[in-house]
Amino acid sequence: MATDPRELAAPTTPDPDLVAVLTELFADYRATRATPTAVVDLDRGLWQRLEELGLTRLTGSESAGGSGGGWVDAAALLGLAAAAAAPVPLAEHDVLGGWLLEAAGLPNDGGLRTVCRPDPSGVALNVTWARDASSVVALWEDRDQWRVADVPIDRVGVEERRNLAGEPSDTVEFDLDDLEAGIVVDHAIGEQFHLRGALARSAQVVGAMERVVDVVLAHVREREQFGRPIGRFQAVQHLVSDIACETALARAATDAALARAAASDWTDPGMLFAVGVAKSCVGHAASVVVRGSHQVLGAIGTTLEHELHTLTRPILARRSEYGSLQDWDETLTALASSAGHDRLWTLITTGRAKTQRP
Amino acid sequence: MSARLVPPGARELPALTELRLEVRAFLAQQVAAGAFVPHVDTWLTRWNRDFTRELGRRGWLGMVVPTEYGGQGRTYLERFVVTEELLVVGAPVAAHWIAERQIGPSLLRYGTEEQKQAFLPGISRGEVVFGIGMSEPDSGSDLASVRTRAERVDGGWRLTGTKVWTSGAHEADAFFALARSAPLDPAHRHEGMSQFIVDLRAPGVTIRPIISMGGDHHFNEVHLDGVLIPGDRVLGEIGEGWSQVTSELAHERSGPERVLSTFQLLAAAAQAMDDGRLPTDPGLGRHVARVAALHHMSFAVSTALENHEDADTAAAVVKVLGTTGEGDIADYVDTLTATGWALDEELDTLLHAAILQRPGFTLRGGTNEILRGVIARGLGMR
Ligand SMILES: Cc1cc2nc3c(=O)[nH]c(=O)nc-3n(C[C@H](O)[C@H](O)[C@H](O)COP(=O)(O)OP(=O)(O)OC[C@H]3O[C@@H](n4cnc5c(N)ncnc54)[C@H](O)[C@@H]3O)c2cc1C
């Protein structure tokens, strides 16, 4: 039996060089950006900068003009961008839209994409960044088949709306002919889309929550009341500790799902459970982190000029995308109860819950 | 990104999973054969010396103890999967838990060669059973205030004082006692304390049961009336008791027993939902998700311990989240059950035991309030 720890466990951390580049890039962005606004629009300058660095197509295959990055690196990018509240559609354009185009064998000219799943009548709600895209990648379920269509923005109707974060979150109406002309893709693609979207959102929310922890820590050191920094008060320490613990749990759950995705290229049958665990832990953590951080920051944290809402609003907006918290808890409940007494632990360790009964 | 509270995660590789499945298969066969009845909180409340010895025979005790001391010379990661499997199946592991978890590692770090030879082989065979004598009637969270006195005498030390809440003292052969070997200096409260290896059968030791609120006997009061401790039963250095005790906390706090004490109840509830005996409710999924995430987090801490990295804060994070969650599972299942609606003996037994044990989850091994302070220190707030 092996006792070399390297044969027992494999670390799954992102490329440290990439993390260093991203950390610097977003620190720079944070330092130079304008003061926060209630309404958030695409930052084209930042998008261009990311494009030049090959970061807008991080996960695209090299043959398709991408950087060939995996999910662990992509999640680091999503998380650090979210921590900087960077208004750029990295998830929509690259890990979801770019992936669908490649899966369908459709060309990708690099123009800004967003992504959605229109209903049978061709309408998609809450399509983030639709108004800014040059075309919309649609995944459409049509009579037992999944189709992918890359529809130019001038061929769809866009009704402009905004989400809780103040970001574009538009209603998009397609011409059914355009969707029907989409390329048929494997069922696995259609099924994976929801999981990929949910995990991308989890990575973003965790990244933002980690930044909230930093903002909170800086505040409790600087802000003084009763003649001392408020971080000296035990009640405050306990609030902050809970915020940090929930964030750490959400991170552990998200990283575990990322590791499983990366190790199996999303083919592991345990992905539904792993993503559900991430989405559930992230979603419940969001309640504690948003509530607690606003409490610790006091009145200043409720103002437009303060950074906090640029994080807490997207945290809440994104935790409800690609399935509500309740939806995911119900999915996990179904998996757990079908696993039953004897296979619940197998479900937790492998993500698979095949019942042994007929 | 902020400095991480918890080390990054790692993926379990097939060599480890193989061990996991081997243990799992053995335990399933033991349950089927009626060798034990699965229960909750078994690592503190279910003693079975035969079962413990059988684990020793199979090489699943003393896993991180080097082979020259009768151990297995394996890794913390391997120990981790074995302990997880034992806990989830609700096996009776209290007889070896404390010795295996913290006495062994402490002896390895601070023990003399003679002490290692004397105790480690027995611990690894599951034959020598230990307890922990830290708490006292007037010293709980504030351990530096312990009053048990150690006085130097010819040939060793005499211990006088009272320890309380000593889990399993009535079954144990020995315990580690934390005592004052020099008078308290209010300016340096953590100095002047030492650890002693106390034979619980020695003259002057009186063990009285303390009955828990459910009527069971798990912990005890241990009265030490001038008990003679031979000079070679001092653990580590005289005066270094505090740093010795605190240096082992990561091992004591980060393990799966801080997450899985009520796993059998969670599994029974999942089954009951499938059978329609409990209403289907998304809270089940939420609790399952937290257990799964803590499984990854606790594993990550094990990898850090394996690499001899500092994991005190991370261990506190696991313990706060884990003990809160395992207690919440008890309360959650309770909120789903209606008395007078259905008789479900198995679920009731597990539920009642879990609810009665629950208050202890967030107290033992350092209360959650104290641990939040540890985390706040890790975050640089104090
Ligand atoms: C099931 C069980 C098994 C145990 N087994 C053992 C054993 O084998 N050996 C052993 O030595 N001990 C054992 N203990 C004792 C355990 O370690 C203590 O209960 C624990 O350290 C707390 O001490 P206390 O109970 O005296 O509570 P106290 O320290 O009196 O605390 C009471 C309350 O005050 C809070 N509090 C105290 N100080 C602070 C502070 N500075 N800031 C904020 N809040 C504070 C605590 O969090 C708690 O909520 C066991 C306990 C239990 C419940």
Topology:
The complex is a heterodimer of chains A (358) and B (382).
Chain A: E1 9-11, H1 16-32, H2 44-52, H3 71-83, H4 90-104, E2 113-116, E3 123-128, E4 135-142, E5 145-152, E6 157-159, E7 169-173, H5 176-180, E8 183-185, H6 187-222, E9 224-225, E10 228-229, H7 234-264, H8 271-297, H9 308-319, H10 325-350
Parallel strand pairs in A: 2-4
Antiparallel strand pairs in A: 3-7, 4-5, 5-8, 6-7, 9-10
Helix pairs in contact in A: 1-3, 3-6, 4-6, 6-7, 6-8, 6-9, 7-8, 8-9, 8-10
Chain B: E1 10-12, H1 14-32, H2 42-45, H3 49-57, H4 76-88, H5 94-110, H6 113-125, E2 130-133, E3 149-153, E4 156-163, E5 174-180, E6 193-199, E7 205-211, E8 217-230, E9 234-235, H7 241-247, H8 249-253, H9 263-275, H10 282-306, H11 312-336, H12 345-361, H13 368-378
Parallel strand pairs in B: 2-5
Antiparallel strand pairs in B: 3-4, 4-8, 5-6, 6-9, 7-8
Helix pairs in contact in B: 1-4, 5-6, 9-11, 9-12, 10-11, 11-12, 11-13
The complex binds flavin-adenine dinucleotide.
The site of flavin-adenine dinucleotide (FAD) has 18 residues of chain B, from strand 2 and helix 13.
Quick rundown:
Chain A is of the alpha+beta class and 358 residues long.
For this entry, give a set of tags.
heterodimer; A: 358 residues; alpha+beta; Butyryl-CoA Dehydrogenase, subunit A, domain 3; 2 domains; four-stranded mixed sheet; three-stranded antiparallel sheet; 10 helices; 10 strands; 53% helix; B: 382 residues; Butyryl-Coa Dehydrogenase, subunit A, domain 1; Butyryl-CoA Dehydrogenase, subunit A, domain 2; 3 domains; four-stranded antiparallel sheet; 13 helices; 9 strands; binds flavin-adenine dinucleotide
